[in-house]
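retry 2 of 3: previous attempt timed out while embedding zinc ion. Reduced batch size to 1 and resubmitted. Inputs unchanged:
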Amino acid sequence: MFTGFVWHERYMWHDTGSLAGILPPGEGVQPDRTFEHPDTKRRMRNLIEVSGLLEVLTPIAPRLASEEELLRFHTPEYVARIRKLSEERGGDAGEATPFGPGSYDIARLAAGGVIEALDAVVDGRVQNAYALVRPPGHHAESDRGRGFCIFGNVALAVMHARAVRDIERVAIVDWDVHHGNGTQAAFYDDPEVLTISIHQDRNYPLETGSLDERGTGAGDGYNLNVPLPPGSGHGAYVATIERVVEPALRAFQPELIVVPSGFDASSTDPLGRMLCSSETYREMTRCLMQIASEVCRGRLLLSHEGGYSNMSVPPCGLAVLEQLSGHRTGVQDSGALLVQVMGGYALEPHQEAVIERAAALVPVAG
Ligand code: ZN
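retry 2 succeeded.
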């Protein structure tokens, strides 16, 4: 079976301006490059090509998400505002989401890329897929962009699946280091979409992502957060997948699993304080593929979110795509060797305590 891969050079033309990382330039702050810049993603795509892996992947061409598709999640006022700013000189979509001219269409191409990848998985044209899109999407809310995210790419793709693809039950497993607040909000009262987010405790956004956010109304019990302590690494992430995510997915029995995939839990990321390596992402992918093969005929879709380290994102992305496609390139990640010997890489008791609290919230399959 095949692994689909979404990419378009136009994603790299999304201009996030001259923040000094995340700080607006001004008095006392020299203009610099925004953390969310094209290089990490372009370098990931380059490594996939140079390693030879690109040749075994099935290209999936993105398309623009239609306005009707955007309106399944976003308000008309918000979509109109982004379009207008994009036609002018750009602006900020809400909170820490700068963009330049033309980004309305680039953000639509990101959402449409994830939708196309989802269709390819649902149609069985590919077994699984990775959408390397930009801008990311999991922080975007219905009426404002947040945290570099303009439109909710994964939320929109899942809404598309349920609106026109006859898919009812979808599980979302977000392993970006930040809380998937936008995706959580999109399905908070919905018992047919299980949202799980594994993230660094109170990193971003500060006000969401706690263990007590379980969903509301009919959706009560269908949202699960695992706020890991800063400094958590491979052991904590793999234990979370095994002890929380796997039983939750077995109990829920989704027809499709979607992963908002950020590589900002890697040890060198400037916006995370975690200790994952490319082997962590490889192992999490292996576990999710195993579950997907048991509960939903292997249907698994990953959509790129954060990841801001030129050193870490390419090997993490390569490891995930090697695992998805079952094809090892032989390229070694020497950076993984550096983090594997650090304290915190293996599971520690204070991390395990959080994982056990989350595991206690998971219903037992029956
Ligand atoms: Zn992130």
